[in-house]
Structures are given as C-alpha cells and as structure tokens.
Design a protein that fits this description.
The structure holds four protein chains of four kinds.
Chain A (H helix, E strand, L loop, with lengths): L1 H21 L3 H21 L3 H26 L10 H19 L17 H11 L5 H9 L1 H21 L22 H23 L8 H19 L1 H7 L2 H24 L14 H32 L6
Helix pairs in contact in A: 1-2, 2-3, 3-9, 3-12, 6-7, 7-11, 7-12, 8-9, 9-10, 9-12, 11-12
Chain B lengths: L2 H5 L2 H19 L3 H23 L21 H32 L4 H7 L1
Helix pairs in contact in B: 2-3, 3-4
Chain C lengths: L2 H22 L5 H24 L5 E4 L10 E4 L1 H28 L5 H20 L3 H20 L6 H30 L4 H8 L6 H18 L8 H7 L2 H30 L3 H26 L3 H21 L3 H31 L11 H4 L1 H15 L5 H15 L4 H27 L15 H19 L2 H16 L3
Helix pairs in contact in C: 1-2, 1-4, 2-3, 2-4, 3-4, 3-10, 3-13, 3-18, 3-19, 4-5, 4-10, 5-6, 5-10, 6-8, 6-9, 7-10, 8-10, 9-12, 10-12, 10-13, 11-12, 11-17, 12-13, 12-17, 13-15, 13-16, 13-18, 13-19, 15-17, 15-18, 16-17, 16-18
The chains are: A mainly alpha, B mainly alpha, C mainly alpha, D mainly alpha.
C-alpha cells in the first residue's frame, strides 16, 4: 500500500522536476523547487529516513527557497529563451540515464533485507549504540560519534559557505549612487500576517530547541534545529523588516555563532586528545565512557546547531541587505 | 521478472531520470540561476539513491524503542551520509547564488551567452 | 598516546581550527600572520610525517577511537606524504610571499575571510590526502572546493566571477559524480572504508553496478583534476584568480584529485577487474597524450602569461596521467615524482608572475617588454623555473622527465612512439617558455621607464628560494625519489 | 459498540475531508481567475484540514499522538488562511484587479492567464 503511494509520489517528483526545467519564469521554477523538496521529504519519510526528511523539509523547502527568492529579487526573474544546444544535451543526458537504468537491474531491490548494505557495517551500529551511548536514535549516534569527523567537516562546509557569501557580497555594488535607499519595513502594515507571525514564531523557535535537545531520542539534532530556528528568525525578518531582525540578532552575533559553533565542535575534539583519547573520542571526557559519549554528543550538537543557525541567517542577511542594481 | 520485482527498481529509475533532468538543465540552460536550480535537482537525485538503499522491508526508522519484539530497522548509515550531503548542497547553492548576484551587478545580465559577449 | 601518533589528525585539525580563529582576529592585519603561522605548523607536521613513513611504514589513525570499518580511519603512507609535502609546502611558500600582493588586490576589511578560506582549502586538501574513507574524502573535497571558489572569486577583474561560476558548476558535478560512484560501491559492499571495500569487492558477483561506479568516480575525479577533455574551467579560473591563489592552486589543487583517482584505480578497481590494465591503456593513455599535445599547442599561441601557464598545467597533468597509465613501477614513480617537481616548477613560475604583476598591470606578453631591466631578479627566477618546466638537465624537471622516458621505453614496442611524444611536447614547452623569455628580455619596453623597480623583498625572496629549490632537487633528488619509489611499490602491490 | 460508532464516524469525516480536497483541487484547475482559484484552494486549507484531522484523531483515540495531531491541526488552521490572505493581498498590490463582472474587466482578466 505504502509503495503504491510512493510510486505516485515519485512520478509526481519527476513531473515536478520537468516542470521546473521547462518553466521560463524563474519565480515559478523556485516555487516548484519548494514543492519538489517537500515531495522529496515525504519520500524520505516513507523510506524510513525521518531525520533526513526533517532536514530536507526545513532546508530544502524552507531556507533554500528564501535565499533563492532573495537572489531573484536582485537579479530579475525572467529567463531569456534560448536557441541552440538543447538537442545535444538531451542526447547526452538520455544516454547517461539509460546507462544507469541498465545497471540498476543488478542492484539489490528496494527493501531487500539481504542486500549487502544491511549485512556489514550497519548492524554493528544498531547493536552497539545502546551499549556505547545508551540512547535510542542510532542516526544521531553515527552522525555525532561514529562518524563525527564527517560532521565536523560538514560544519566547516557551512562555515566556508558563510564566509564565502560574506566575502563575495562584501564589496559594495557598483553605481550605488543612483539608488535611493528605500527603508525596508517588511509587511508592517499588514496586520493579519503580523499577528499570526507573532503567535507562531515563539513556537517555531521552541520546536527548534526541542529538536536540538531531543535529537538523541527522536528525529532531530543540531543541524535540523539550526535550520528551524533560522527559519523562525527569517520569518520574523520578513514580517517586521530586516532592520528589526538585525536589531534583535545583530550581524556580529551571527558571525560569532558561526565561528563559536565551529570552534566548539573542534575544541571538544582537541580536549579529547589532551585527555588521552583519539581526536573526537568522547569516551575520555568523563569517568564513565557512556557518560563521556553523551556529554560529548550534547556539546557538539550544540556547536552544530549554533554554526548552522548563524550561517544560514548570515547568508540570508547578506542577500537581503543588498540593493538591486538595474 | 514479475511486475512486482520490476517495481523494486522504480526508485532507482526515478533517480536516473532526475539525474538526467538536472544535468540537462545544467548543460543546456544559459540562465545562471536556472543552472543552479538544475544543479540542486541533480544533487537531490543522488540523495534519493542513497535513501532508497537504506530501506528494509517491514522496517522502521532506526530509533530503538524499548519493548518491541524483534525490531527491524532500516539502515541508518546512508541517512547520516545524506544529512551531510544536504548541507553540502545548500552551501554550494548559496555560494553560487552569491556569485550570480555579483555577476548581475558587474555585467547587468545573468545569461551566460551575453556574459561571454560582454568580455 | 604521544604526539607522533596524533600527527595524521593534527595535520588536518591545525589549519581547520585556525580558520575560524582568523575571522576573529583584530586588527585585520594580523590575519596574514595567523594564517602563515598555521601553514608553517602544518608544513612542519608534514615534514615530521614524511620522516615517519620514509621507511615504507604506514601510519594509521582511528578518528574518535572507533575501529576501522565502523569509524573513519586516516592513513598516511609514502605516497600521501609526498602529496602532503607538496600541498603544505606550496601553501606555506605562497602565504609567506603573499602579503604585498594580497594587500594590493584585496581590501583590508575582506582579508580575514580570505585568509580563513585559504586555510580551509589547505585543510580540505590535506584532509582528502590523509583520509582512508570514501565518503570522508567527499566531505573534504567539498570543503576545499567551496573555499577555493571563494579564493578565486577574490580576483580583481570582473571576469573572475563567470570563471569561478563555471568552476563551481563543474566542480559540483564532479563531486556529485564521485558521490554516485561511492554510493554504488557502498550499495554492493556495505562499507565505506577503502581497505574494507578492497577486501569485500572480490565477493561481489554483480559486476555492472561496480563498473558504472568506476566510470562515475573516474569521470568525476577527472573533472576535478582537469584531465584533458574536462579541463575547460582551468585556464580562466587560474588567470583571473588573485596571483597568490594561482600559485597555491596551480601547485596542488588538481593534483589532489589525481591522487584520489590513482588510489581508487590502483587500490580498488585494479584488484576487481581482470582486464583493468587494458582499460587503463585504452582510456587514460589517449586522454593523457591528447592532453599533453593539445594543451601545449594552445599554450604556444596564448598571449596572456597566466593563461599560457594555465594551459601548460593541463599538459603537465597529462604527463602525470601518462606515467600512471603505464601500470608499471617505473611509470608510477615517474608520476609521483612529477607531482612533486611540477609543483616546484609551476609554483615558482606563478610566484615570478606575481612579482611581475606587482609592477605591471597588464600581463599580456606584448605589454611586458623590458621587464628584465626593471626586475632582473624576478626574470632570472622565472628563467630557472622555466628551464625546470621544460626539463633541462640540472633542474628538478629533468629528473621526472627522464624517469618518464625510461618508463615509456619499458612499455614495449610502442615505447619509442611515446618517447617521441614526450620529446615533441618538451620542444613545445621550449617554444612557449621562450616566448615569455623573449618578451621579458628582448622586447622593446612600452614606456620609457626602465629604472629598476623590483618586487617587494618578501615576495622576491620566496620566489628566489623556490627557484633555487628547483636546482637543489635537480641535483639531490633522493628524498622525493625515495618517497616516489616506495609510493609506487605500495600502489603496485595494491595495499592500502 | 462505541468503538464501531467512532470508527464509522471517523471514516465519514475522512471521506468528506477527502472530497473537500478533491473539490478544492478541481476548483483550482477549473475556476476562471486568480481570486476564485484561491477561494477554491482555501477549502482545502480549512474545511478539509479540520475534517481529516478530527477523523484521524478519532482513529488514534485518547493518546499522545492525538495531542500532537491536534497541535498540527491548530497550526494548519492558523497558517493556511493567513497564507491565502497574504497571497490575495500580494496579488492586489501587484495590480491584479478582482473581477467585478463587467465585460471590460473580463477581457483584462483572461489575458494574462
């Protein structure tokens, strides 16, 4: 039954993707991309990947759309029709797709419990997580401890994106003089969205914090929490105006969150090293190794949350604060 | 091969098609933002492939619950990898958009052929 | 655990954690000092690691204390040590020299971000080299790529932006292809650790997904490494990047992707596919030869000095790939050696270009007349590095060219043809280097101003030092040679 | 007995909710212009949400899941109409005039569709 539903969703996914590529209005494309992300998130959920679904919904459908729209406001939203080159591209990608489809017939089937992926490394994680960490969410355990080094890398990817956007948009736009700066006041004169927003934003942030600290027990963790809280603040910025949001959380604080989060994560690793373990070996942090793991994971998840939230908001503000040059 | 067995590969076919659609947009479109949108479809396709392989028939999300007899869990590892990959995707996208904004400011257009003509 | 066992981790962690610290540094001028200090420390770690693995030993490190297939493992052997030396050395040299050039090209307020990104590139590249986990390599590849987009986007000309956008597109496609390949391998083996993959691939009965995976990984990494038909992003990206960034990236960025490609091909696919050698010879060798000849030919007619050297880099990647495609001890050690020597030669050349750029706005060959009178030392260093690039006896470049030629002779009846190709392309190198030398020494100056005005001492000193190292390693090559030989042994044995 | 009654009731609610979604969907496709279309879509936002969620809550019984479902319903009931309002408002501000029924307006309205 659920597979029939998945079949329907996947078909819809393909249709949406084709519609995205065909649409000439970029605004339509971006909105369809949001739908695409939501469909993808539902698919992930059907395939038992609750954490990934939460992330895709918060990031793909939430933050990415806002950043896209901010960029569109600066660059214009009409695509020019083009003349040539489409046939060749179509042939190339068709060949690629056919090659992949041909090779898939040797893949293990969807849901096959005898597939190699379910035999080797993964069962060890499922078996050892209760023993080493003593909490139920295996995804969090792998993410923050067994493969914690990858996650450290991920935090630095976000950090790189943040400083990159600040660096690239750090130069003032040319021909600025001809622009009369319009005070951005958001939707202040719209009473209804504002009232509803005020009602909702605290709950969004609260839910973010819940995701942050409940990540060891249910789906969630630093990354999802960071993205959710960032979404809440972005909603505030859209309703009350960007200046108001910056007054609540200034740019310096945001940058501090990014730098602090990345450093917090890294320094936990270094402390582990100083206390006689390997880099990121949280077991040495407390007398009881299980406690040590839990403590370490709590701290690094906080680091991830801070860094992601700060980075996404910095990126949003960097785009939103820019004026359009025509 | 029965119909049901073929259905077991459907996810991989969708992966292949989405990959092709994304790559098509990247190669053939001249509008830089459209290229970035294509790139994000392209990356999403890979996410779908990874998540597809984590599913176990009759399994649940890998969150261990007390009191359940003989639980079957889906594979947690691909989920972890894709969590990381999603972040990487967003980071690349925002960096790319920042560049597009600067290109618009410097060249006055975001169509690739017009940029090439301008230089 | 003592310090030595932690070195593989510290190699990555030191530059990585310094990056956020540098953003915080006030006043802004300190950013350069901080970045340089971090680079010097990581260079020192690389040297220490080199001495630890000189005897053919492999250092292993389990991240987080988790045993290998479950946690992420790092491993350093002779081959990785050689590449580590190149990366950290290039970064240190470029940073030591960087301050005057960077101050000229990037505003002071933006410099902390710039240096922070620089350290991220460094940590990303060394992270790829020391990692023994297929997915971890992807993560660090993305760190280094994202950060290098930032560095290139710092270029002063507006053309840097489309160039870097193209690089971003191709880089992301390359990385995603690699990710697909890793996913397919994971699907068939259930593991991500390279040694474990190698051990378990033998049991896989369905070969098609692995074959497709090999294709995706090879194409993806070839895109990143700028192997011949996938090189289109290189010349523009190198040309419009800030000069010091070109020094750093030209010396090592593409080679790291090549390093991963070599590891995957030799350690994982070679043991799986029976006909692997032939696939190599049929697929990689033609690409290498075409790359060498086409790129050298393009370089011969290029009018902009940085574009010219960028095209030459593609040809040099071709040399490295050619040695790899012989699938022999001699060929591999020639390639490993060329990774080292080309970094020296090309790094030196781009440093000299940075010196020239300090005085000359326009770097087209036609505008550089009379430079030898204004900047004699710079031009001398340029000539030395140019000779090394051509492969004149007595310079570092000669060693690897010679090794490549003798490896080519070993391949059998086709060997003489390959030697001929190498010689022809070396002659082409003579032509394009001569065109620059002619412009520097014999062309009439554009303006009347011929008074001597050298580049700042800091920049010039490092340039001279690198030029001298080209001669030193041409005369006493035994350390890189030893590393290259034991790297070749390890690769041929297919051990990780 | 009471279980059966609740089950029947919840299925009735779910079915009506589903029909509401369907009507909303058809309306979104068939109605002539922007304002009438979002009018149809708002049926999905409010009526269908209410019916379907109450139906599911009846299925779930008196558990924690019901509380969560109730919270989600509340959230959707708050955001859905707000989004519709914002959409209509944005359309009005960007110059799309509502159809007042005169012939002059009609030709204007159908042109951009």
């Amino acid at each position: 039954m659920i597979y029939i539903f998945a079949l329907f969703l996947l078909t819809l996914l393909v249709i949406t993707a084709i519609a995205i590529v065909r649409a000439e209005d970029l605004f339509v494309s971006v909105i369809l991309t949001t739908i695409f992300s939501l469909l993808m998130a539902i698919n992930f959920f059907i395939l038992d990947a609750a954490d990934v679904a939460l992330t895709e919904a918060a990031v793909g459908a939430g933050v990415t759309t806002v950043i896209f729209l901010c960029a569109l406001a600066l660059t214009g939203d009409q695509e020019k029709p083009q003349k040539q080159g489409q046939k060749v591209a179509l042939v190339i990608v068709s060949i690629l797709a056919l090659v992949i489809i041909y090779s898939t017939f040797d893949n293990p089937q969807l849901g096959d419990p005898d597939a190699p992926v379910h035999q080797h490394v993964a069962p060890w994680y499922l078996e050892k997580t209760p023993e080493y960490m003593d909490f139920p969410n295996v995804v969090t355990a792998i993410l923050s401890s067994f493969r914690g080094y990858d996650t450290l890398g991920e935090v630095f990817v976000v950090f790189a994106a943040c400083i990159g956007v600040l660096f690239i948009l750090g130069v003032s736009p040319p021909r600025k003089a001809m622009q009369v700066s319009v005070k951005k006041s958001g939707l202040r004169h719209h009473l209804i969205p504002q009232v509803v927003g005020r009602l909702l934003i605290p709950f969004i942030v609260l839910f973010g914090l819940y995701t942050q600290f409940h990540g060891e027990y249910g789906p969630g963790g630093g990354f999802q929490a960071g993205a959710l809280i960032a979404t809440g603040v972005i909603l505030f910025a859209l309703l009350e105006g960007e200046a108001e949001a910056l007054r609540a959380v200034p740019r310096r604080v945001l940058l501090g969150m990014v730098v602090g989060g990345a450093l917090l994560y890294g320094s936990v690793g270094v402390v582990c090293m100083l206390m006689g373990g390997a880099f990121l070996d949280y077991s040495v942090l407390a007398a009881d190794p299980v406690w040590g793991q839990q403590l370490g994971i709590l701290i690094i998840e906080a680091g991830v949350g801070m860094a992601v939230c700060g980075a996404l908001l910095s990126i949003f503000h960097a785009f939103a604060a820019r004026e359009r040059v025509s | 091969m029965t119909f049901l067995e073929l259905l077991g590969y459907f996810n991989y076919w969708v992966f292949a098609i989405l990959l092709a659609v994304g790559l098509y947009a990247v190669i053939s479109k001249t509008n830089l933002i459209k290229k970035l949108i294509g790139l994000s479809i392209f990356q999403s396709a890979v996410f779908l492939m990874y998540i597809t392989m984590d599913k176990v028939e009759g399994g649940t999300a890998p969150i261990i619950q007390a009191g359940v007899e003989n639980p079957v869990f889906s594979n947690p590892l691909p989920q972890v990898l894709i969590l990381t990959a999603i972040v990487v995707g967003v980071s690349t996208l925002s960096l790319g958009l920042a560049m597009v904004v600067r290109i618009k400011e410097c060249y006055g257009t975001i169509e690739e052929n017009e940029i090439l003509d301008a230089d | 655990m003592d310090l030595l066992t932690h070195l593989p981790a510290l190699q990555v962690v030191v530059p990585m954690l310094s990056a956020p610290l540098i953003v915080l540094l006030q006043p802004r001028g300190l950013a350069w000092a901080g970045a340089t200090a971090a680079a010097v420390v990581s260079f020192a770690i690389a040297i220490a690691l080199t001495f630890a693995v000189l005897d053919g030993q492999t250092l292993e490190y389990a991240m987080g204390g988790w045993p290998a297939p479950y946690g992420i493992a790092l491993s350093v052997d002779a081959f990785s040590a050689l590449v580590l030396l190149v990366i950290t050395g290039a970064s240190t040299a470029a940073l030591l020299a960087a301050k005057p050039s960077i101050d000229q090209q990037i505003e002071v307020e933006r410099q902390p971000f710039f240096y922070s990104a620089w350290l991220l590139v460094l940590s990303g590249l060394v992270g790829i080299v020391v990692s023994a986990d297929a997915f971890n390599i992807f993560v660090f590849m993305e760190i280094s790529s994202l950060a290098s987009y930032i560095l290139i986007a710092g270029g002063p000309n507006r053309r840097a932006l489309p160039a870097v956008f193209k690089y971003l597109m191709m880089g992301t496609i390359g990385a995603t292809f690699y990710l697909i390949g890793v996913g397919l391998i994971y699907m068939m083996t259930g593991t991500l650790n390279l040694a474990d993959i190698q051990a378990r691939l033998g049991d896989v009965t369905e070969i098609n997904p692995i074959l497709v995976a090999a294709g995706f990984i090879t194409i993806g990494l070839a895109l990143k490494a700028a192997v011949f038909p996938m090189h289109v992003w290189v010349p523009n990206a190198y040309t419009h990047a800030p000069h010091m960034v070109t020094v750093f990236l030209a010396a090592c960025a593409t080679k790291v992707a090549l390093y991963v490609l070599i590891r995957f091909d030799y350690m994982i696919f070679q043991t799986t596919f029976a006909e692997h050698q032939i696939q190599f010879a049929m697929f990689l060798m033609p690409l290498a030869i075409l790359g060498i000849l086409m790129a050298s030919a393009v370089a011969m007619f290029e009018g902009h000095i940085k574009k010219l050297l960028g095209s030459s880099s593609i040809a040099q990647i071709g040399y490295i790939l050619l040695g790899v495609s012989f699938v022999s001890m001699a060929g591999l050690s020639a390639s490993a050696m060329h990774i080292f020597n080309h970094a020296l030669a090309k790094g030196g050349l781009f440093l000299a270009v940075a010196c020239l750029a300090y005085r000359y706005r326009d770097l087209r060959l036609s505008q550089l007349g009379g430079a030898s009178a204004r900047m004699p030392w710079t031009c001398a260093a340029f000539v030395v590095c140019g000779l090394s690039l051509i492969g004149v006896p007595g310079t570092a470049g000669f060693i690897s060219k010679w090794m490549l030629i003798s490896a080519a002779l070993e391949t059998g009846p086709w060997g003489w043809g390959l030697v001929a190709i190498i010689l022809v392309s070396s002659l082409m190198a003579v032509v394009y280097i001569w065109r620059i030398v002619e412009a520097l020494y014999f062309q009439a100056p554009i303006e009347g101003d011929t008074s001597m005005s050298e580049a700042p001492v800091q920049l010039l000193f490092v340039t001279g030092l690198v030029a001298l190292m080209n001669i030193y390693f041409g005369l006493f090559p035994h350390i890189p040679l030893e590393l290259a030989n034991s790297a070749a042994t390890l690769l041929m044995e297919g051990s990780l | 007995m009471i279980d059966l009654a609740l089950d029947i009731l919840s299925w009735i609610l779910l079915t009506i909710g589903g029909v509401c979604v369907l009507i909303g969907g058809i309306g979104g496709l068939r109605l002539p212009n922007f304002y009438t279309r979002i009018h149809a879509a708002s049926l999905t936002d409010t009526m269908a949400t209410l019916l379907i969620f109450i139906g599911i809550i009846l299925q779930a019984g008196f558990t924690l899941a019901s509380l969560k479902l109730f919270a989600i319903m509340l959230f959707l009931l708050l955001t859905g109409p707000t989004a519709t309002y914002a959409l209509a408002n944005a359309a009005l501000l960007s110059g799309l005039k509502p159809d007042t029924g005169t012939a002059k307006d009609k030709t204007k309205e159908n042109a951009p569709e």
